[in-house]
Fold:
Amino acid sequence: MIVYKNLATLIVDTEKLDKFGTLYVDREKWRADPAHVEILLLIGDDELEDLDEEGNPVLATQNDARYFFDVEIFQSVIDLQRGKKEGSIIDDYIHAINYYLESDDFY
Structure:
């Protein structure tokens, strides 16, 4: 498991992320302060297939986190935002991410 302390550090590493990984976040903290919430990256069968009784990875549950994005989708959302607005700031990325989360479609 890799823990990103905030969204900005995750965005910096977007291109380096394992495309088979999955991102998890505390959804309440995301809604309250998306720029500063910790985001977990779980990779591999041992991290993603050890599930709790609700079907969530145990590592995510232990950190009060729920499914956020598959890495490939997250990379697409970030790449699309970069293409739409060169020099995007964190609020632009948050808008693009929230749009995808709410609409299941790209901004």
